[in-house]
Amino acid sequence: DARGRGRYAAAMPALRTVAAQLLHPEKGILAADESPKTFGARLAGHPNKPSLRQTWRHILLTMPGLEAHISGVILHEETFAQAADLAAARAAGVLLGIKLDNGTAPMGPKQAGELHTRGLEGLASRCAPFHTQHGAAFAKWRAVFRVGPHTPSKAAIRRNAKDLASYAAAAQKCGLVPIIEPEVLADGDHDLSRATNASVRVLRGVFRALKKRGDVDVGAVLLKAAMVTPGSSSAVAATPEQVANATLRVLLGTVPRALPGVVFLSGGQSEELATTHLEALGRLAAERRAAGKPLPWALSFSFGRALQASAMKQWLAGDVPAAQQALLGRAAANALAQQGRAPQDPAAAAAAAAAAAAAAAAV
Ligand code: 5MM
């Protein structure tokens, strides 16, 4: 009813407060919004049944201790049918996010191989109930860009940037903090400088489109970005320091100071490598702070695969407590990494052990 619908809206803090909550210095965002197809690709041959996806999301949302290092969970629309699980996460203080994009489609013959993101049609009315009826606090929209000799093209950047900005405006009007995710893919054999160049062009386009609209509060938007790395099949590797330096240079040259935070996706990196890269970024941020030149925005993580991979493996092998410990362990390690602290630190190791013990005691 109308009173029920208004309840969450009235209880929900202002958008900038939600953004700050998501950017808690010791927490990050869990991306558990895989579409059914993507989820199937993670199942190592297990049949991709809705009940299986439901069980996994139940495990995630009701995990004891999740809130220690997870500020919010991004969910696919199908999980919003799991009212009790959503309520459990909310009660633990974990914010809920809704993936509002409807996946990608080809741009057209002139931009062969390039994609745009679907879902703008009817978005204004589609997004409202997630906030008013289900208590979602934030949203996500992902666009993808392939790096190649002629891509990302100007047309692909223009189209996706404009659509990301339209989505951001619609989400804020619905009472949701928009996470904009213009993902520069790691697929390919390009080097670090080509990745840098593509990332700069994409992010410039996105923030230009947001500015041009004029109706988006950038102070209540989060950027979900790929770390700037050589392509996953590149012959030349980069050190974590090179990745962190390139990533930070790109962000400093493109992201407005008013934006509260940048959260990184893992983009197919292993759990360990994603954490190592995040730690190098955290160290650079800490060095700048110590030198009196702090970054204008918070840095955090919004990993999908790099938080869930080991945990899913344990779950599929039938060991739910081990799955919980794996996920909480990754979250704890990344929470330290974003502050530039290594899990090998004695204090860090103690914190991770305590988290694992708490998880074991709770199951
Ligand atoms: C978790 O997967 C998200 C949804 O992907 P599809 O729409 O392709 O099913 C995806 O947007 C994800 O949040 C990001 O790619 C980050 O995940 P990774 O695994 O790269 O950290």
Characterization of the model:
The chain is of the alpha/beta class. The chain has 13 helices and 10 strands. It has helices at 2-11, 15-22, 36-41, 50-61, 83-91, 123-132, 154-173, 192-213, 240-254, 271-290, 305-316, 320-337, 346-362, and strands at 28-32, 70-75, 95-99, 104-106, 115-117, 138-145, 177-184, 222-225, 261-264, 298-301. The chain has an 8-stranded parallel beta sheet with strand order 1-2-3-6-7-8-9-10. Strands 4-5 form a two-stranded antiparallel ribbon. β6 (138-145), α7 and β7 (177-184) form a beta-alpha-beta unit. α7 (154-173) packs across α8 and α11 (305-316) packs antiparallel against α12 (320-337). The chain is globular. Bound molecules: 2-O-methyl-1,6-di-O-phosphono-D-mannitol. 2-O-methyl-1,6-di-O-phosphono-D-mannitol is lined by residues 31, 33-35, 38, 103, 142, 183, 265-267, 303-306.
Q: Key features?
A:
363 residues, alpha/beta, 8-stranded parallel sheet, two-stranded antiparallel ribbon, 13 helices, 49% helix, binds 2-O-methyl-1,6-di-O-phosphono-D-mannitol
Write the layout of secondary structure elements.
Blueprint: H1 2-11, H2 15-22, E1 28-32, H3 36-41, H4 50-61, E2 70-75, H5 83-91, E3 95-99, E4 104-106, E5 115-117, H6 123-132, E6 138-145, H7 154-173, E7 177-184, H8 192-213, E8 222-225, H9 240-254, E9 261-264, H10 271-290, E10 298-301, H11 305-316, H12 320-337, H13 346-362
Parallel strand pairs: 1-2, 2-3, 3-6, 6-7, 7-8, 8-9, 9-10
Antiparallel strand pairs: 4-5
Helix pairs in contact: 6-7, 7-8, 8-9, 9-10, 10-11, 10-12, 11-12, 12-13
The protein binds 2-O-methyl-1,6-di-O-phosphono-D-mannitol.
